[in-house]
Amino acid sequence: MSLQKPIVAFVLGGPGAGKGTQCEKIVKKFGFVHLSAGELLRNERDSGSKDGNLIQNCIKDGKIVPVEITIALIQKAMEKSSVKKFLVDGFPRNEDNLQGWNNRMTGIVDVKCVLFFDCPEEECIRRIVERGKTSGRSDDNIHSLRKRFNTYKEQTMPIIEHYEKLNLVKRIPATGSPDEVFQDVKEAIDSILN
Fold first, then answer.
1. Which structural domain range is residue 167 located in?
2. Is 82 among the domain residues?
3. Cβ-count burial of 125 within 10 angstroms (0-12 exposed, 13-18 middle, 19+ buried)?
4. Which parts of the chain sit beneath pLDDT 70?
5. Phi/psi of residue 9, each to 5°?
6. Which residue among 11, 15, 90, 127 is the one 20 to 30 A from 105 at the CA level?
7. pTM to 2 decimals?
8. Of 87, 93, 48, residue with least CA distance to 70
9. CA proximity to 10, closest of 155, 117, 129
């Protein structure tokens, strides 16, 4: 059995930047396991767990769920997986997330990079409004979206800047078609695997 630590690529970008779409492509091409923090939280909320109401209120208000809950869900999903290459999508989103991750996961996993999907707010809003017509997600509306963008600018951008100082950010221009964007993604993933 390999003693190598699982590798992690964080996936960050504004709401609607295309993170989920690109993660699907990475999973198909490179065999990563996609762990969406938002999806893990929505599943936990829907499971009837003791944290369900708290998670729902945070999601509805465009706020960030307490870090202990999110990291526990991510870690549990990693431990269940036989594959040891993870895309951690939508996390860490603020300083508290970053500190919580460092406290709990340092030495357990090897963070290889942050894939940062760089997309202008207007384009993200256009995509989310379109997605909201069919997604059924309670946060795919203009009101929640404004809150999510404020949270992203005020709290997530400093995390991206932190990882830039560590030379771990792979900035991906995210305004093209999914296939165009994936050309840059492939180069970024190749660079961390080789």
1. 7-193
2. yes
3. middle
4. 1-3
5. -120, 115
6. 15
7. 0.88
8. 93
9. 117
